[in-house]
Design a protein that fits this description.
Bound molecules: thiamine diphosphate, magnesium ion
Length: 570
């Protein structure tokens, strides 16, 4: 035990957990601790809005493999975190959200900046350290940091502001990292037996493979089985796009080659994925999920095994270790899938070629303003090889799913199933802080840009060279698409009147480039990513829109009252 102040215990626990960067906005609530961040070796990154800090912590954690940490003033600063923490929850990001609270000496009196901060985060965190005694700060905080990694998700550290003061005897806990395993031996044996019998095995690889750093084991297993590899929705970086067995992502605006191939599977190995319902919805009018196939699902979280899809074998294990274990079991066995491997390779080749030809045909338009698919194809071709790309929620950003290919993991970050507009840019900023040597590129629609462009302030102040591609189509396009398809073209709230986003960027002190023609896109992207400066590429896009997100969840409107009868659509 050492005698120190609670602020010192707080900062020493951060140091013990390896924290070197914290995103937030200053506040009196934690200024006593903030004052010693620098001598502790912790950089405080001041942002424009706490939501931005939360997303930056998310991007930072996914790239670094360490915690992303954010902190704010009690009350309004803390409530500004909510959207970002919810997004991190569904992205399985180990974000530590530090929420100083109103003083324990006046709690309940409705003094200043008071709200009950525990219920607000209760459904979007894996663990909440609600500190009520200053001499437990280090112990409870250490546990929160440990659980963020062990359970892969955000945690909250809630500290009444008066508890930073005083003096305590304390031992700073060392981080505890729990070793993972491949899974139960019986389930792994059953999984290997299914794979050995399979005549058309397909691997569906999810974010768990990236988090487990299991790409090498996945690749070896796929090569042994000559099994094509599909990526789960928005996990396009799980398998190298140049690999002959690569097929691309399933899900909204995903790869037709992946969909048409998995539809033929007799055994699916779902590796490191919860098989989220949105990610396997029919797309491009293809209902591809192979209902008759036998499914092996591997995940570290036993609660998601068999939750969404019917499965035959459940393996509670680390995706990489489980893949390595199955590989070892299968290596010296006769495998049914070897008998027809050449046919399968030929089939994969045909499906990939057909999908590429379709993408090429869609990307021919030379017009100005620029057709979205042409823009996305040009960006794909000019993307630096080790780029980290984030995408927002929006129609063009979602269509980008067909065009985002990666060679290495930890390269693609999207607003997974929380789907919040405004995610991509601050997440790219956080990613860039974690890996300053890699180009960071955010794809953002003009509507979502209105939510998030304030973080240009952070980039300029902190000299962070993120490239933002803003698709200016003058509309909240993804939602307008619903009004086109379901609401007789009644555009309520979906048309946008934009300023010059390139000009706005310049006035912030960043670079801004307006791009009017497709043949300017490649050079503009290369220039922006090489410049080391924060740059907004404003792509002047047509109003063309791809399929809507939620055709599954919308119905043609029926009105029963006379006054609304003209608003029925049949
Ligand atoms: C925070 C938030 N608000 C609203 C929505 C609903 N929403 C989903 S997509 C979308 C439109 C996005 O428009 P834009 O960013 O311009 O991209 P576009 O669809 O035009 O390509 C909206 C409003 C959301 N997902 N998140
Ligand atoms: Mg738009």
């Amino acid at each position: 035990m050492t005698r120190m102040t609670p602020s010192e215990a707080f900062v020493e626990t951060l140091v013990a957990q390896g924290v070197t960067d914290i995103f937030g906005i200053v506040g009196s609530a934690y200024m006593d601790a903030l004052d010693i961040f620098e001598p502790a070796g912790i950089r405080f990154i001041p942002v424009a809005h706490e939501q931005g800090a939360g997303h930056m912590a998310d991007g930072y954690s996914l790239v670094s493999g360490r915690h992303g940490v954010c902190i704010a003033q009690n009350g309004p600063g803390v409530t500004n975190f909510v959207t970002a923490v919810a997004a991190a929850y569904w992205a399985h990001s180990p974000v530590v959200c530090i929420t100083p609270e109103t003083g324990s000496n006046s709690m309940g009196l409705g003094g200043f900046q008071e709200t009950d901060q525990i219920p607000i985060f209760s459904k979007i965190t894996k663990y909440q350290a609600d500190i009520r005694r200053s001499d437990r700060i280090a112990e409870q905080m250490g546990r929160a940091f440990d659980l963020a990694i062990a359970e892969r998700g955000p945690v909250q550290v809630n500290i009444p502001r008066d508890l930073f003061y005083g003096d305590i005897d304390v031992a700073i806990p060392a981080p505890r990292r729990i070793e993972r395993g491949a899974g139960g031996p019986e389930s792994l044996k059953a999984a290997a037996a299914l794979l050995a019998e399979a005549r058309f095995p397909v691997i569906l690889a999810g974010g768990g493979v990236v988090m487990a750093e299991g790409q090498a084991a996945l690749t070896e297993l796929a090569e042994l089985l000559k099994a094509p590899v599909c990526a789960t929705y928005l996990h396009n970086d799980v398998f190298p796009a140049s690999h002959p067995l690569w097929l691309g992502p399933l899900g909204y605006q995903g790869s037709k080659a992946a969909m048409k191939t998995i539809a033929q599977a007799d055994v699916v190995l779902a590796l490191g994925t919860r098989l989220g319902p949105f990610g396997t919805l029919p797309q491009h009018d293809i209902d591809y999920w192979p209902r008759d196939a036998r499914v092996i699902q591997v995940d570290v979280d036993h609660r998601v095994l068999g939750l969404v899809k019917a499965i035959d074998v459940a393996v509670e294990g680390d995706a990489g270790l489980a893949a390595a274990d199955m590989l070892a079991r299968l290596r010296n066995q006769p495998l049914a899938c070897h008998g027809n491997a050449d046919d399968r390779m030929a089939e994969i080749g045909r499906q990939k070629a057909a999908w590429e030809a379709e993408l090429d045909a869609w990307g021919q338009d030379d017009g100005s303003p620029i057709a979205p698919r042409r823009a996305l194809r040009e960006l794909e071709k000019a993307m630096p090889e080790d780029a980290m790309v984030t995408t927002d929620i929006g129609n063009i950003c979602s269509v980008a799913n067909s065009y985002l290919r990666f060679e290495r993991p930890k390269s693609f970050f999207a607003a997974m199933s929380f789907g919040n507009c405004g995610y991509a840019f601050p997440t790219a900023v956080g990613a860039k802080f974690a890996a300053p040597e890699r180009p960071a590129v955010a794809y953002v629609g003009d509507g979502a840009w209105g939510i998030s462009f304030n973080e240009l302030l952070t980039c300029v102040r902190e000299e962070i060279g993120v490239t933002v591609v803003v698709f200016n189509n003058g509309q909240w396009g993804a939602e307008k698409k619903n009004q086109i398809d379901f609401y007789a073209d009644r555009y309520i709230g979906t048309n946008l009147k934009n300023p010059s986003w390139a000009g706005i960027a310049q006035s912030f002190g960043a670079d801004g480039i307006r791009v009017d023609a497709p043949d300017q896109i490649g050079d503009a992207l290369r220039q922006a990513t090489a410049s080391g400066r924060c740059t907004v590429l404003e792509i002047m896009a047509t109003e063309e829109l791809g399929d809507p997100f939620r055709r599954d969840a919308l119905k043609k409107p029926l009105r029963m009252l006379d006054k609304y009868k003209d608003f029925t659509v049949t």
